[in-house]
Prior knowledge:
Blueprint: H1 2-5, H2 11-43, H3 47-76, H4 95-120
Helix pairs in contact: 2-3
Amino acid sequence: MALIGNDKFNDTVYKYMTGASLYAYLSHYFFIIIISVSLVRPYKIKFIPAFFLMFFGTFFLIFITYWPLNALYELIVPPKEMKKADLTPDGELTEEQQAAAAAAAKAAAIEKGEAQQDEEN
Length: 121
């Protein structure tokens, strides 16, 4: 899961799905209370219509309040730099590390060969 679940397939979708989920967890009960006190109880709405009103109404209120709050937050706080997690097992080198090690070995061999050539002259 770490190989496929940590990649961003779309920056905007990733930002709103991950950020809005925490905001929804923290704020959904407030919106449920607002809808129930202002609409369901005064108008005596039956269970099934009230359920759909609460479900979709809460989702709608979460979205329309998260978007401006997130925009304000992004104006105040600069985005942090993200880098991919190192998922290689301990002791194994990545392709980039292997290429760098090979280049360093080649450079060392060239330097050593030039040093021997200088000593012979």
